[in-house]
Structure prediction request, 265 residues.
Amino acid sequence: MPIAGDLGDQHAALFGQTCFALGEAKCTYGTGSFLLLNTGDELVRSTHGLLSTVAYQIAGGPAAYALEGSIAITGSLVQWFRDQLELIATAPEIETLARTVADNGGCYIVPAFSGLYAPYWRSEARGVIVGLTSYITKGHLARAVLEATAWQTREVVDAMNADSGLDLTTLRVDGGMTADNLLMQFLADVLDVPVVRPAVTETTALGAAYAAGLAVGFWPDMATLRALWRQDAEWRPQMAPAARRAQYGQWKKAVERTLGWAETE
Prediction:
């Protein structure tokens, strides 16, 4: 059988989300999370801790490039909350538990279990839970777990905006964590842009199929692929700008506490 397409994991997800235009971005939320921004025909050299990569290339056409930001611990933080702390029995229960409180109560969790990836790349960082008081319940901890994914995404988006000279206008999301509606709403709030989930969330496999089908003529062109994309849900920002700034500032302070913890030779 012919090999009609050859795409890396996250590049396939970008292709499956049909992010074919300059400035379009997707983030895949699994054990870790990976955000790619299409930078068009320009290979942007990052100065803010991101990776520069080839997004895709259709036979006979120019290469399209992307910036990539890798976050090590997102879905695996929920697994830690379930398996190590045993505060929930199944991963989906974290949303129910987090909804028992109105906010994080001032508690932040930075999951630098194996250091921090983009945009820091600090291998000596270690995870912290900060802002604990006698008021904090397991509901606040659950909310802080979910919010950690959103704040880490915000840091990568800020780096991408700075590197590319573009401002993200919409984020397309996929992967298992996108089933958590509370997380998706908070993500839209901290990014201050709409967050959109497609009807098909297994976009890596879809992207590989799109590339192969395009190569063998099953689909005539990329415009046809874009027409196939369907929206399942959308979340729009609801957080007040002042609250967003204040909470992001607290997150940044929490990240500072992780740095320099492990001794390095």
